[in-house]
Specification:
single chain, mainly alpha, two-stranded antiparallel sheet, two-stranded antiparallel ribbon, 4 strands, globular
Amino acid sequence: MSQPVRHIAMLVGALSLVVAPLAVPALTQASAATALTAADTDKDGTLDLNEVKAAAALEFDKLDKDKDGTLDLKEAAHHVSKKNFIAADPDKDKTLSKDEYIALAVALFKAANPDGDATIDSKELHSTAGIELDRVIR
């Protein structure tokens, strides 16, 4: 590899290390705004528990491709982490029923609502639990 090509390759590599972290918060903010817009049926700028339950139920129906009334890990893969899937499966049958899926959304809602005001705002949706909740309801 010639000297100028090597310098360009190193510069591109270094630049990607600087730019990539800057892109992630912007994507997360857009994701949070989309989740609020999509699930915020009363348009008050927050999500309450009933809105989260309704959004989770709709998302479950979309994810249940084989229409058997359950989600296996493959069906839920892009919406529920393996850790959350296992935690949300109390009967250990390796599937989530609609009730278990909604219960997961409720647990994440509570975890993302540390101030206990019964609503999730955009800031709370950026928390770890809020990001997981966003994945479950969208």
